Structures are given as structure tokens and as C-alpha cells.
Amino acid sequence: MSDEKDLEKKKAAAAAKARAEALRKKKEKEAEDQTTPENSEASEEQKEVSPEDTSKKDVAEDADLAKKKAAAAAKAKAAALAKQKRKQEEASESEDQPAEDGELAKKKAAAAAKAKAAALARQKRKQAEADSDAEAEDEKAKAAAKAKAAAAAKAKAAAAAKKKREGSVDDEAAADDEKAKAVAAAKAKAAAAKAKKKAGGKKKEESNEEEKPSPNQPVLDKYVKVIKEHLGEDVFEETYINRLSKHVPTLVAKRDTYYIIAQFLKFNDQLGFDYLSELHGTDFETHMEVYVHLFSLRNKQSVALKVKINRNQPEIESLVGLWKGANWPECEAYDLFGIKFLNHPDLKRILLGEDWVGHPMRKDYEPHDVEV
Amino acid sequence: MIRTEEMMLNVGPQHPSTHGVFRLVIKVDGETIKEATPVIGYLHRGTEKLAEDLQYTQIIPYTDRMDYLSAMTNNYVICHAVETMMGLELPDHAEYLRVLAMELGRVASHLVWFGTYLLDIGAVSPFLYAFREREAIINLLNELSGGRLTFNYMRVGGVKWDAPDGWIDKVRDFVPYMREQLEGYHDLVTGNEIFLNRVKGIGRYTKEDALQYSLSGANLRCTGIEWDLRKHEPYSIYDRFDFDVITAEEGDAWSRYQCRMGEIEESLRIIEQAVEQIPNDGQYMAKVPRIIKAPKGEAFVRIESPRGEIGCYIASEGKKEPYRLKFRRPSFYNLQILPKLLEGENMANLITILGGVDIVLGEVDG
To answer: How far is C-alpha A209 from the geometric centre of its chain's CA atoms?
Structure first.
């Protein structure tokens, strides 16, 4: 609330200043009278476009609206332009600042809900940037360009309007202006809030949906098809392309089917995963996971095989029978996570030694020291 | 008749030929090794556990200390993992600096292997020559990064700072110098009959064994398998360079020697092309947020280090620190085949075989 009061005061002050300026410059402006109609038309166009665009380009529009408002509230004409420029410079500087992150952004978002539309716009810009730099930059550039044009047009239009009414209804005009600004501000706020939500979560999903299918999608489909044909429909918990990990096809096996899938991956003629590149465990607190990265030299293809196992009784079949290279990595997973690999030829605490108490990489590990 | 009995012999953990702290418990019958059991973990520092409380940039110095003979590739693999997750594009200048640093590191690493391997099997002077050339590389990397072994040079999105003035020219001049020295090595060692007798046919394994035991790097290529991640799964800008993947057919210590020496030459070729191609715009850092956060999800990337395939797995919850960080350490995987290689071998070949694997204990133990 106090923010809004502040804003009102500032607006009033700015309006008074603008009036004074307009009065003072009245005679100077006469020469520009011919150009003003054009400008005011441009300004109207700008306003007309705004609501239509909101659905598509909320982000750009909010920045646009906010900036228009900010510019109008500041000074009437040249001063407004100058300030606008300065703001843009500031904005581009703030963009170099850390785009910060989720937590900070959320906090700021909460504060911004009450704050001025200008602050909202800047905030949203930051957030949008965190999501995707390029996009945000693009939009920002557009918004900045629009805002600049709009600010100039509106300032001129306002000056022209004032000049016409100046003699008698000076105060009234100012009041009208004030109202219009308030309406614009409210609209800007609402739109900015909407855009903020979008920028936060929805945007990423949208961009993912729009993404073209992964180049490895056919590969994954092939694996899944071949495996299901031979081992049955119900062997996977999940299969997907891990886009973060260079689009590696990822198969999540069930606890019971882990070994037969691994066996199939190795011995099937079409798949032929003859090389075990990596094996490790991870404690996800709700469950343990074993991650295996396999590679087929013949097909030059990778696959990630994962299995979720019970955290309280972490047991899973050993892969040493298929790839001897799984020997030490499984020992390591046993040592650090306590995952027992069944049928392992020599499961030992390979790094820490047999007298170590506990499994340090588990998230609930408490260091044990006999001397303490 | 002379009565014989099996004897247990302890090698290490403090033995010069282990190049670190590595223990080998062997059972010998006369001169023949019956069984060998590697004991590792003396250098385990819990990097992965520590990393769970560190921001990504703070983890980079820890990677220097894993494979301390080629810290640049270790720097690279974690940066690459985070960059892959974030979908970052790097400026060309930064990519070239990284490649130059990594390839110089590869040459230095192979030089250490060359020198110490020959020292292990009885030739002292190659060690001195190799370390002289390695010193030149260390000086170059020192000038670039400010460190001699633990460079801490790469950052997510680029490198710490640009190369100093004239550095590229020094690297350019280094290539012909190194080639000349390399010829000297070949004259001194490669055709040496004593050396050939010590390494030919020793520690031999097949393609199938190499794949079974998840070997990588020269240990894999020495069996004739043409597989180099720089070539076949190009990362960074390796697809812009013309270089060959060196393979040999025999799968013995002699083949591994040939592979590594050949790789020095190929690295020099890459360096030569890189110094010509490097753009001179001084852009050594991509635009990144001040606080690096990998998006929620997981990723596993792998690259070619001098010792083989080094990988980095990150499970992230979108925070500043990784939820789980795992390094696929090539020496750890490569060492697994050792008991099989030693079984039935003559004691005198123990060091030849162990040295041929080219392990770095900091990496084995993680």
C-alpha cells in the first residue's frame, strides 16, 4: 500500500512538473504541432495492438506497458525520453547481474506483486532471462524498441492534448491523465503478474513441447520394441530420452527384470552392447538407484540402464557375469552405498577397507569415530 | 629334489613403480606369480562426497587432484557435464584455449608415462629427456593458468582468463621442438633391442578381454579397436581437427607403447591446427549466471583423457550444488584387468605389465 501511495505522490509530482514544463515550452512546441497528429495516431496504434498481442507476447507487452507507464509518469517529453534511455541502460546492466535463481526470483516475485509495475517488468525480465537468455533478450529488445517509440509518441500526444486544453481545463486534463495512468498501471500489473507465472514454470514446458523429437527417438523405439518382443510387454518401469544427457536413450528396468534386460542388451544381435562404460549407485532418499551406461561398439550407440531398488534392503543382481568390468564399480557402490550385488564373485569394501563403519555416500550417513 | 613352496609377497603401497600408493599382494611359486590381488583406497579422499556440499565452480580444484598428470581433462569433464545440462554454447576462443590446454596436458601426461615406464624397466636417461620436455609444457601451462600441476583453469562457460600475450606463439614454437625431441626418443628407445625384448608379447590380452574389462584409452586401442571419443563422439571442437586414431594390433606392452607415442604426435597435430585456427577476439567466457545451477535432472558425459574414458555423472535438483556427482575414472576401470594379466607371469614382468597400464593412483582411488 505504501508503495502505491508513494507512486501516487510521485505521479502527482511528475504531473505538476510536466504541466510546468509544458507551459514553459508551449511556444517552442508550436512548430511541432504538425507532427503531433501522426504521433498520437502511432500511439493509438500501439494501444490497439497491445491487448491483441497479450496472448502471444505477454512478456514483451508487459515490459511495453510498464515502460509506457513509467515513461508517462516521469516527464512529459524530452525528459521522458532521456529517462527512458537511462532506464534501458540500467536494465541492460542489471541483465549482466546474476540472473539469480529460483529462490531469489520467487522472493522477489512475492514482493513485486505489490510493487510498481516497473519493478514487475524488470523482475519478469530477469526471470524470463533465467529461463532462456536468447528468448528473453530478443523479447527485451523488442519491448525496449516498442516502449521507446511508445513513450515518445505518448509524451508528444500528451503534450499536444495538454496544450489544447491548457487554458481552461488544465487541472482537469491532468486529473484525466492521472486516471488513464492508473488504469494503465493496473492493466500492466495484472498482465505482468500473469506473464510472471508463465515465465516461471509454463514457459519451459512449452518450449519442451515445441521441441522437435529427439534424434535418438527412433533408436529408443527400436530398443524398446526389440526388448518387448522377446521379454514381454511388462519389463520396463519407464523409457525415455534424457535430453540433458546428450539425448541418451534411457531404460528404467524393474527390480526383477534388471538382469534379464542387461543380459538381453548384451547378447542380442541387433543391440550388442558389449562395453560397460559406467556403473554406479545413487541414494535418492526414497530409493536407491543403480545407473549403468552401456555402449555398443558395433552400432556406436549408448544406452543408459537404470533400476530403482529398495533403500532399506538394497540388493540387486551383479552384472559381473556379463561384463567383468562391472566388478570394481559394484564394489565401490557396495562400499559407499551399501548396495549388495548378488552373485558378485568378490564383493568387498574396495576403497574404505573392511573396518569402516557405515556407507558414507548415503544421505543419512553419520560419521563414526571410535575416539569421539 | 628341491622342495618349493608358495610365498606371499607384498608389493607397495610405497613402491616407486606404483607411482603412488598402490599395494599388490602376490603369491609366488619360485619366479612365477600364482595370484595377484590389488589393494587400493590409500588415496581415497571422498571427492564425490565433498562435492555434494560444494558449488560447481568450487568442485573444479578437486578434479585437479584426481588425475594429477592431466588435470586439464579433469577440469574439462565437470565443466562439460554442467554445460551439457545447461545447454551452454561456448565462444570459439574459449574452446580453442581449452583444446590447447588439454592437448598440451595429454602430451605432458604421455611424456611422464614414457619416462617413468622406461625408468621402471631399467633405462634411466629417457626419463631425464622426457621430463625436460614435460617441463617446457608445464611452463606453458603455468603461464596460462598460474599452476604447474593443479591448474584450476576451466570454468563452466569458458576458462578462467585469456592466454597472456605471446602465449599462442610460444605454443606454436613448441610443436616443431617437440617433434624433433620425439625423433630423438625413437632413436634412443623405440628400436632398442633390450627394450623390445622386455615389452614384446608381455601382458597380452585380446579385443574381447579389453571390452569385457571395460578398458579404455591406449589400453583399448592397443588391441586394434579404433575407438577414441575425440573422433567418434566429438565433444568441444574436436570435429574441426584432422587427426588419426592410433591403434596397434598385438595388445601387448609394446602395442601400448606404440599407441601412446603415436598419440603424442597426433596431439601435436591438433595443437598445430588449433594455434592457426584460434580466433583472436579474446572471448574466453560465455554469458553465464553468477551462480551456476544445473537444471533438475541427470546427465552422464564422457571424454577422452590420456588414460582413457573419463566420465562425469551429475544428478541435480536444480540447486547450486550437485545432488550426486560421480566420476568415471579410467584408471580405476583399467586396473581391473591386472590380476588376470599377472597370473602365471614371471616376476620380472610384473613392473612391465603394471607400468603398461598407465595408472594414476589419485584417479584410481577418487
So the answer is: 14
CA–CA dist B191, B254 (Å, integer): 11
Which triple of cell numbers denotes residue B200?
Answer: 614384446
B57 pLDDT band, cuts 50/70/90, is very high
Verify whether the Cβ–Cβ distance B49 to A323 is below 8 Å: no
Give kind and range of the element (H or E) at residue A65.
helix A58-74
pLDDT band for position A59 (cuts 50, 70, 90): very low
Nearest Cα residue in chain A from B47:
A361
Task: Choose among A171, A157, A168, A181: nearest CA to A70.
Answer: A181
Give the pLDDT confidence score for residue A316 in this predicted structure: 94
**Residues of chain B contacting A248 with CB distance shorter than 8 Å:** 300
CA gap B84, A243 in Å, rounded: 9
> Average pLDDT for residues A190-200, to the nearest whole number?
48
Q: So what's the pLDDT on residue A159?
A: 54
Interval A272-325: pLDDT, tens:
899 999 999 999 999 999 999 999 988 899 999 999 999 999 999 999 999 999
Distance from C-alpha of B96 to C-alpha of B104, rounded to nearest angstrom: 12
Whether the CB-CB separation of A67 and A117 falls below 8 Å is answered with no
What values do phi and psi take at A41, rounded to 5?
Answer: -60, -45
Cell 545407473 sits at which residue? Answer: A291
Query: How far is residue A218's CA from residue B186's CA, in Å, rounded to a whole number?
Result: 49
Say yes or no to pLDDT of A172 above 90: no
- Distances A212 to A221, B29, B84 between C-alpha atoms, Å: 16, 64, 18
Q: Beta-carbon neighbour count of residue A310 at 10 Å?
A: 11
Cβ separation of B214 and A248 shorter than 8 Å?
Answer: no
Beta partners for B38?
A: B24
The packing angle between helices A117-131 and A58-74, to 10°, is 150
Burial of A255 (0-12, 13-18, 19+ CB in 10 A): middle
Alpha carbon A210 to its chain's center: 15
Residue A316 β-bridge partners: A341
Tell me the residues of B at the A interface, defined by beta carbons under 8 Å apart: 40-41, 44, 46, 48-49, 84-85, 211-215, 225, 227, 232, 287, 289-291, 293, 295, 297-302, 309, 311, 313, 315, 318, 320, 324, 326, 328, 332-333, 335-336, 365-366
- d(Cα A271, Cα A302) in Å, to the nearest integer? 10
Helices (H) and strands (E) in chain B, counts: 15, 8
Cβ pair A325:B213 closer than 8 A:
yes
ipTM above 0.95, yes or no: no
- Please calculate the CA angle B144-B146-B152 and round it to the nearest 5 degrees: 90
Chain A residues whose beta carbon lies within 8 Å of the beta carbon of residue B212: 323-325
pLDDT tens digit sequence for A101-119: 555 555 554 444 444 455 5
Chain A residues touching residue B40 (CB < 8 angstroms) = 350-351
Chain B residues touching A332 at Cβ < 8 A: 332
Measured distance CA(B229)–CA(B106) in Å, rounded? 14
pTM for the predicted model, two decimal places = 0.71
| Record: contact A283-B324, CB cut-off 8 A | yes
Residues β-bridged to residue B327: B312
Q: Name the CA dihedral angle for B282, B283, B289, B294, rounded to a multiple of 10 degrees.
A: -120
Q: Determine the residue of chain A that is closest to B41 in CA distance.
A: A351
How confident is the model at residue A121, as a pLDDT? Answer: 53
A351 touches chain B (CB under 8 A): yes
Instruction: Locate B287 and state its grid cell.
Output: 554469458
Integer distance in angstroms from the first to the last C-alpha of chain A?
56
CA angle in degrees (0–180, nearest 5) for B239-B243-B246: 125
Task: State the helix-helix crossing angle for A102-114 and A133-197, rounded to 10 degrees.
Answer: 50
Report yes or no: B281 and A88 within 8 Å, Cβ to Cβ.
no
Give the span between the Cα atoms of A270 and A229, in whole angstroms: 13
